[in-house]
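Batch 3, record 17
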Amino acid sequence: MKQFAFLVRRDLSLAFRQGMDSLLVVVFFVIAVVLFPFGVGPEPGTLSRIAAGVIWVAALLSTMLSLERLFQTDYDDGSLELLALSSLPLEVTVLAKVTAHWITSGLPLIVAAPVLAVLMQMDTDGFLVLVAALLLGTPSLSLIGAIGAALILGSRRGGVLLSLLVLPLYIPVLIFGVSAVDAAIGGYEFKAQLLILGGFFIGTLALAPWAGAGGLRQALE
Amino acid sequence: MADLHRFANPTRFLKLAAIIQPWALAVFLLSAAIGLYMAFFTAPADYQQGESARIMYVHVPAAWMAMFCYTVMAVASAVSLIWKHPLADVSARASAPVGAAFTFLALATGSLWGKPMWGTWWVWDARLTSVLVLLFLYIGYMALQGAFDDRVRAAKASAILALVGFVNVPIIKFSVDWWNTLHQPASVIKMGGSSIHPSMLWPLLIMAIAFKAYYVWVLLVRMRAELVANKVRILRLKQVHGG
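Prediction for the assembled complex:
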């Protein structure tokens, strides 16, 4: 546990010292959402109809953009091998890196999402559910993404490949994330969708570190 | 386990494959001929859908094979990760393009069938969407296979991906039961017997056999080709190093 916390702190301080890097993900998130009013036109009716979907898709894409660096820098400078040799099980290492990734890239998205929801003319009934759905959904995105990030280590054209591997697996989170917000705006019951998102989170929390560690092991062989 | 490893020997496999391969081709040609004849001439036109229901005889077996090939790929990947079975990698790699082709065929025929029946080429219903995801998983698998210079590395990475992606297969299977969709629910295999008339069921099953035999045949061709390519590479390396 102490080692886990240490690893999370190490990754966080590395991210903060690079400063702009984690901020760039949020900037991408904002720009991607802001493109839509230009694309589909500024009518409030249209925008509020698509707001939840656009914000979720942008969140998916910006999470994915930051994934490539999840293991790549440590892999390149060799510290990943040291981490693998340490007494900490590789699964826990993966979990620690995912936690740090979520804090630096998932959490800022959640903070920025309500502001974007205002820009997209989203109905105020949806705000709280949007934040709750993102809180439950983005950790699953980081966890699933860790598997992809581990698999592409040392491959050619890693970034594009990563999107091809990870995005299909993100679709269930997207479906239930958007439908929770839409249900709340429409005045329907949204608890079921949030529970399913929570279920995805618990399921990926149990399985993804395992698959990610498998990916790392074969990359380090 | 001893039985499994008996066939781990590529030479023994090649011998066996050489025997099975012409039979698989014969079964494919024969059952495809019978199945297509029955599908076009003896099977009745559907009382609601008319002649266009005959697309079913290609669409349904292709969709079955799409899931079957992925299952084979996932099982072979698990075997290769756990027991380092040398042929498992080869069979998983050989299955992927065939499965992707079947998935594409299922989507394309479904789209052609959907236009006259549902009035649209495509609907975002659970079955169609999950099969589309399956196609993306196949493409991702093949892309990952091709992304490494080291073949062992490529095999292991894509084996893990195949296992992770396997969660989608049960979702496809049960999507028509879990969600209320435009795509009709399971009618051939279900509790209390099939709800489809024998005059239509028989051509369907024969076509399914034809598709499966085709898969076995292509799989063996691809596996043998890959084993031979491996041999050629080793010989070349020997030539270079032996000088």
